[in-house]
Write a structure and sequence with these properties.
single chain; 700 residues; alpha/beta; 22 strands; 38% helix; 18% strand; disordered C terminus
C-alpha cells in the first residue's frame, strides 16, 4: 500500500509540474520522502543581524537589515542587471539581480526597510550580494518557526526559478505539516531506549527547523544513527545469508605445489603474510565460499600471498586465475611467478588483449582440459570464449577497477562459485572498509618485508628544476633508474599529453644519449610500443621512464630509486602514495620528489605536506577521507559508495559506525532472520526498496 511519503512531489502545494521537473533534474527529488530527507548542510542563526561594516570575505550566508537608498538598471541585453544599494547606517552593499529584474524592481521600494539574506562576495573592491532573499522587515515569517535557519544545497537554475533557500524552507514547512502526523517510527523501541535516541517525528521536525542548538544536535544524532544502522545491518545480513547459504569447494590438503613454492621463496615471510595465509587456509577448508578482502600498503607482499593461495587450489585439483586491471600489471605478475615455480610441476599462462590468436587458442584449450593450472590476465579472462576445467580460486587485484557485472561473469565459469580473494594496495580507512566491504572478511598486511627502507619525500618547486636534474644525474651515474610521472586526468585531455610531450623533449635535451637513455609510456601508444619501452626500463636498458599515471599500479623495478611527480598538486593523496610506492623496492635508499608550481591552494599544500611527513598509507587514507569525503575516494565521485548518505559522514561519524555495527552483530546473532516481534520494524525497513543497497562488494 502506497504511503503519503511516496506521493509525487508535484502534488505538494507550492510545487506543481514545472517545479517538480526542476527538482527532479537538479536535486533528484521525485517524492515527498525525497524532499523530507533532503537535509540542510549548515545552519545560520537568523536571530543575529550583521552590520555591513562587519562583513569580511570569510563570511558564508549572513543576514542584514537596512534601507534601500537607490536602485538602477545597468548594462544592456544579456548583461542587463538591477543593482539596489542597501544602507544600514554602518555602510552600503550592492544587491545584484540578473533574473526577474522587472518584477524585483516593482517589488522593492527606495526608502523602505528590508531584511536581506545571502552570501557576500567581493567585487570592484566593495561587497555585493547576488540574488539575495529580500523580505520586508515586518514579514520575516519563517523566523517565527526557528531562529536557526537551515541552508539547503541548491543550484543556479533553482535559484533563478524562484526556489531559493527561503522558498525551499517554505516547501519543507508545508511538507512537515502534511506528512508528520502519519510518519511511523523506523527503529524498535528497545533500540531507541537503549541508545537514548529521540523519536523520529521530533528528529525530522528539528533537522529542518531546530527549536534550539540542543534540539538540532539530538535530531542529527538520531538520523545519523538510523542511517548507519540500516546500512550496516543490510551488509551484515547479506554476509550472514551468504556464509550460511554459500557452498564452497573444500580444499582439504596443503600439498607439494604449495610446499615447494614456499621453499623456493628466498626470504622469510613477514608475520603479517603468515597470519593472512592462515586466515585464507581456514576459509578454504571450511566448506563455505571464501570472500576475503586483502588490504596491503604498497610493497607489503600481497602478490606472494596471492600466488600461495593459488597453489592451495592447485593442490586440491582446481585451477586459479589472477586478474589484474592492466596488461602491464598482469604481465608483471606472470613474469614474477617463475622464480617460485621450480620443481612444482605447476603450469601457468598469461592471457591479455594483445595475446596472439594462435597462443590464445592454445591457452583456451589448456584451460578447458585442465593442463593450465594458473592463468594470469586482464578483462580478457571474462570473455565468453574462456572456459575453465575446474576453477576453484579467483584473485582480483585492485578490485575497485572491476565492475560488478564483470566479476559476476567470472563466477559463472565454475559449477560451485570459486573462492575469492580481492586485493587492493589502496589503503582504505577502517570506517570506509566496514562500509564498502561490510560483507567481506578483511585481512590487512601491515608489515613491510625486511630490508625495505622508508622513502624520503621532498617538495620542490619549478625554481629548483636545475637542482632536480643534477640530483637525477648523480643517481643514474650511481647505477639507479628514475621515474618521471605526469598527471593524466582524462584520456582525452590534450593539455596533459602536451605536458608529457614537452617534458619528454626537455628531458631528452638535458639527458643526452648515449650516456642517458629515456623511455616513454602513455595511454595513447600502441600496446606493442608501450610494452617495448616498458621492457627497456624493466630490464635496466633505459635510465629514465617518462610516463603518465598509467604506471601507478604495481610496476616493479627494484633498481628504480627516484620517483619524480610533475604537477603533484593535481593528484589525490592515495594516487601520490601509490606512485611513490613504485620506488623503494630494492635495497638502495629511495626518493620521491613532488614538483609543483609556486602557488598552491591550501588544500594542495596540505596534501603535499602530509606526503612529506609520513609513509603510512593508512594514515594518508584517513586524511584523504577527511579532506575529500567518501564519495571522492579514489578521485571519482561516488566510485566507492553504492548508496547515498543523507546526513552521516563516514569521516566524522566513525564512533557511531562502530557502535551500530556492534549492535547489528548482536541483533543478528540473537535473531538471524529477524523473526522476533520486537524486530518486525527492522525486517520491514530492510525490505523497503529505498534501503536496497546495491552492494559493490557482494561478489559471488
Amino acid at each position: 500500500m502506497a504511503t503519503v511519503l511516496e506521493s509525487d512531489i508535484k502534488y505538494l502545494p507550492g510545487v506543481g509540474p514545472k517545479r517538480a521537473e526542476l527538482l527532479q533534474k537538479e536535486l533528484g527529488i521525485s517524492t515527498f520522502a525525497d524532499l523530507l530527507y533532503t537535509f540542510p548542510f549548515r545552519y545560520v542563526d537568523r536571530s543575529r543581524y550583521y552590520s555591513i561594516r562587519e562583513i569580511d570575505s570569510t563570511n558564508a550566508y549572513i543576514q542584514l537589515r537596512g534601507r534601500i537608498v537607490r536602485m538602477q538598471m545597468v548594462g544592456e541585453h544579456k548583461g542587463k542587471r538591477l543593482i539596489a544599494v542597501l544602507n544600514d547606517g554602518t555602510g552600503c552593499i550592492d544587491l545584484v539581480f540578473f533574473q526577474g529584474v522587472k518584477w524585483i524592481q516593482e517589488k522593492l521600494k527606495v526608502g523602505q526597510e528590508y531584511v536581506v539574506f545571502g552570501k557576500p562576495t567581493i567585487f570592484n573592491q566593495g561587497y555585493n550580494m547576488v540574488h539575495p532573499e529580500v523580505d520586508l522587515a515586518t514579514e520575516d515569517k519563517l523566523n517565527s518557526i526557528s531562529a536557526l535557519m537551515g541552508v539547503y544545497s541548491s543550484t543556479e537554475k533553482l535559484h533563478t526559478s524562484g526556489l531559493g533557500n527561503k522558498a525551499f524552507a517554505k516547501l519543507q514547512a508545508t511538507l512537515l505539516d502534511k506528512v508528520l502526523p502519519s510518519v511511523e517510527e523506523t527503529l524498535p523501541q528497545y533500540v531507541i531506549d537503549r541508545k537514548r535516541l529521540c523519536p523520529l517525528k521530533y528528529a525530522l521536525r528539528n533537522i529542518h527547523f531546530p527549536e534550539s542548538v540542543q534540539a538540532l544536535s539530538k535530531a542529527q544524532e538520531r538520523l545519523k544513527f538510523e542511517e548507519l544502522f540500516y546500512l550496516q545491518l543490510s551488509l551484515l545480513k547479506q554476509k550472514l545469508v551468504r556464509t550460511n547459504g554459500s557452498q564452497g569447494v573444500v580444499f582439504k590438503t596443503i600439498g607439494s605445489a604449495f610446499n615447494n613454492t614456499y621453499r623456493n621463496i628466498p626470504f622469510p615471510l613477514t608475520g603479517a603474510q603468515k597470519r593472512v595465509l592462515h586466515e585464507i587456509r581456514a576459509d578454504v577448508g571450511s566448506g563455505r565460499q571464501m570472500n576475503r578482502l586483502l588490504q596491503g600498503d604498497v610493497g607489503s607482499g600481497k602478490t606472494l600471498v596471492a600466488i600461495l593461495s593459488a597453489m592451495m587450489a592447485v593442490d586440491n585439483g582446481c585451477q586459479a586465475c589472477i586478474m589484474a586491471p592492466t596488461e602491464v600489471l598482469a604481465t608483471q605478475h606472470y613474469n614474477g611467478v617463475f622464480k617460485y615455480l621450480e620443481n612444482t610441476g605447476v603450469n601457468v599462462a598469461l592471457l591479455t588483449g594483445s595475446t596472439k590468436t594462435a597462443e590464445r587458442r592454445r591457452i583456451h584449450e589448456g584451460l578447458e582440459n585442465g593442463t593450465i593450472h594458473i592463468i594470469f590476465g586482464t578483462h580478457a579472462l571474462i570473455e565468453d570464449t574462456v572456459k575453465f576445467h575446474n576453477l576453484g580460486m579467483a584473485v582480483i587485484d585492485e578490485q575497485h577497477r572491476f565492475g560488478v557485472e564483470q566479476r559476476a561473469k567470472l563466477w559463472s565459469k565454475a559449477a560451485i562459485p570459486p573462492h575469492v580473494l580481492v586485493m587492493t594496495a589502496t589503503p582504505i580507512p577502517r570506517t570506509l572498509a566496514m562500509t564498502l566491504y561490510g560483507d567481506l572478511d578483511v585481512s590487512v598486511l601491515d608489515e613491510l618485508p625486511p630490508g625495505r627502507k622508508p622513502i624520503q619525500t621532498v617538495h620542490w618547486t619549478e625554481t629548483q628544476r636545475g637542482q632536480l636534474y643534477r640530483f637525477m644525474k648523480e643517481q643514474i651515474r650511481a647505477g639507479r633508474q628514475v621515474f618521471i610521472v605526469y598527471p593524466l586526468i582524462k584520456e582525452s585531455e590534450t593539455m596533459d599529453y602536451k605536458n608529457l610531450e614537452e617534458g619528454y623533449m626537455a628531458i631528452t635535451e638535458e639527458f643526452e644519449s648515449p650516456e642517458f637513455v629515456t623511455a616513454v609510456v602513455h595511454g595513447k601508444q600502441k600496446p606493442e610500443n608501450k610494452a617495448f619501452d616498458m621492457d627497456l626500463f624493466v630490464r635496466g636498458k633505459a635510465h629514465i621512464l617518462v610516463a603518465t599515471s598509467v604506471i601507478e599500479v604495481g610496476v616493479d623495478v627494484p633498481n628504480a630509486s627516484v620517483m619524480v611527480i610533475e604537477s603533484a598538486e593535481r593528484f589525490g593523496l592515495s594516487q601520490l602514495h601509490q606512485l611513490r610506492g613504485r620506488v623503494g623496492r630494492g635495497a638502495e635508499k629511495s626518493y620521491c620528489i613532488l614538483m609543483t608550481g609556486y602557488q598552491l591552494s591550501s588544500e594542495s599544500r596540505k596534501r603535499i605536506d602530509l606526503m612529506c611527513q609520513t609513509n603510512d598509507g593508512f594514515e594518508l587514507a584517513e586524511a584523504d577521507l577527511k579532506m575529500r569525503g567518501p564519495g571522492d575516494f579514489e578521485g571519482t565521485r561516488q566510485s566507492g559508495l553504492a548508496f547515498d548518505l543523507h546526513i552521516a559522514d563516514l569521516a566524522k561519524d566513525s564512533p557511531i559506525l562502530e557502535e551500530v555495527r556492534r549492535l547489528g552483530e548482536e541483533i543478528l546473532e540473537a535473531d538471524p532472520y529477524l523473526e522476533a516481534r520486537e524486530n518486525a520494524i527492522i525486517a520491514r525497513k530492510l525490505r523497503d526498496a529505498r534501503l536496497e543497497i546495491k552492494d559493490y562488494s557482494n561478489i559471488s
